[in-house]
Amino acid sequence: MDIAPYFNPVDFDAIGFTEKSYDPxxxxxxxxxxxxxxALDLTGVEFAIVGIPESRNAVGxxxxxxxxxxxRRQLYQLYKWEVPVQIVDLGNLVIGKTVADxxxxxxxxxxxxxxxxxxxxxxxxxxxxxxxxxxxxxKLEKVVNIVAVDSRFDLGNDEGDIRSDCYLNKIVLQQPNYxxxxxxxxxxxxxxxxESIQLMNQLFFxxxxxxxxRKDMEDVEPxxxxxxxxxxxxxxxxxxxxxxxxxxxxxxFYGEEICQVARYAGISDKLSSFGIYEYDPTLDVESQxxxxxxxxxxxxxxxxxxxxxxxxxKDKNTYTRHSVTVSEAIDELDFYxxxxxxxxxxxxxxxxxxKDLEQKYFLPCSKKDYETACHDKIPERWWRAYHKMNx
Length: 391
Prior knowledge:
By secondary structure, this protein is an alpha/beta fold. It has helices spanning 67-75, 99-115, 129-140, 168-173, 194-202, 210-215, 220-225, 255-267, 288-304, 367-374, 380-389; strands spanning 7-8, 31-33, 47-52, 87-93, 119-124, 144-149, 179-187, 206-209, 229-233, 273-277, 319-324, 333-338, 344-352, 357-365. α1 (67-75) packs across α9.
């Protein structure tokens, strides 16, 4: 794919780096900056930074189009990781004549990167760009699990246009549909209508209140481990830690907590795209939010350097199987624990009635889920997955 017509190269003056020589340990010295005049060689590249200054469908946050370069300004002041990582910064996308044009180009670019085993890091822009990110998997005909870190569900209604607060319903209703599961981390009940919360439950989507997650951040890991795509609305972070968002709240994740979420996302062997949205530089205080987003990206890549490749169950000898009899379940629940990482999975039977076949889906879980089963209770995560896959 020739991406040259679609990007403006990084403007170093705009991001505050006017010197020609930098500390060789800084990220800016260890990133390849693509210029449309040259050829794009993705050999060995692991990440591609993609700025998307699109905000025409933002609700009350048009200035989030200014975000990509402000994030770069802070990100490239950080130091590199201990393990060498190959990153290319493609620059900022030339937005389309219409927002639909932008969605189409974004989905093309991201599908191209994902298909070449390059993880795109999207610097939005508004939250509706997650819809274009989803469509990248649709074009590859790949089933996708999405994790959204957001204080709101952004469901919207069937008739409404796509907006930053109304895009999830478009993904759910898209045909053919490649969405296997959707999980929201960090929603705040008082920011979502009772009807939307009920609908999420009826769809058997996973929803986790921010207060529940903060009690034990390790519970985030198996949720994220099941995802191919993560979108992060910066409004999920409390306003004192991230003031650069018009919908920020006094409550939400703390800065160090959101960095931990990002690190879990990086560690996940499945996750193949990551986007950060809704940052408004005009509301930021001393670049505090941009700095935090830089840290989020840094921790995401740092997590990637610790991937273990223990997700594909190629060698069953590297896992310990635990079978648990639960009175409410038809069959025993089979749990697998990795001998290498200590991570857990539980088997969810998927019954194909037409072909009279039963398949197995290995659902990431936690040791707590195993302990719940040992106490003769069906883990909530297993219950939701079973009913969703056997409707």
